[in-house]
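Page 37, continued from 36.
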């Protein structure tokens, strides 16, 4: 009798619910979709992080060059060494090397920094039908009065490219009239 009572209790219980095959396949498909989106965007996220570190080191180097020019009362020269991935500040009292931290960079990442200067309105050039309004310069000078040469810097790391125009009076980034980057 006890066995029959147990059987009746078991029949009265509801079946355990489980995931169906369709539900499992749907979850796997969603995980695969999100995983592939993450992997596709991972390279651009890494390059953006690398460009951020290079840009922050550039701003550190400009502050250093400007401070040294003011303190030493002598012009300072700022340039970028692509082989060492470092900004170098030259002055009358020697040079200071400001290396970019590349430990977290991808092995194949290559950094390119180009300093350019805008040409005056009457000195632009027409090359193959394109109007050239800037010229490449090898370095930038910072002067004892706190100013610097007017220049633009183009930072390329992987597929990430940034162009920054620097105000010669303040050494800060120039913004366009609508507030966006120049």
């Amino acid at each position: 009798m006890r066995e029959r009572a147990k059987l009746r209790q078991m029949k009265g219980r509801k079946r355990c619910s489980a995931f169906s095959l369709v539900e499992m396949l749907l979850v796997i498909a969603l995980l695969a979709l999100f995983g592939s989106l993450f992997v596709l965007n991972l390279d651009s996220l890494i390059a953006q992080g690398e460009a951020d570190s290079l840009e922050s080191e550039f701003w550190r180097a400009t502050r250093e060059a400007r401070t040294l020019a003011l303190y030493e009362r002598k012009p300072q020269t700022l340039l970028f060494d692509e082989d060492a991935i470092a900004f170098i500040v030259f002055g009358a009292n020697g040079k200071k090397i400001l290396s970019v931290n590349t430990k977290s960079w991808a092995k194949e990442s290559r950094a390119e920094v180009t300093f350019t200067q805008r040409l005056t309105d009457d000195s632009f050039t027409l090359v193959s039908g394109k109007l050239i309004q800037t010229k490449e310069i090898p370095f930038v000078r910072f002067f004892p009065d706190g100013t610097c040469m007017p220049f633009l810097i183009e930072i390329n790391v992987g597929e990430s490219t940034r162009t920054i125009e620097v105000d010669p009076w303040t050494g800060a980034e120039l913004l366009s009239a609508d507030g966006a980057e120049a």
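The chain has a mean pLDDT of 79. Flag for discussion at group meeting. The beta strands are 76-81, 86-91, 94-99, 111-118, 125-127, 130-132, 134-137, 140-142, 151-157, 160-166.
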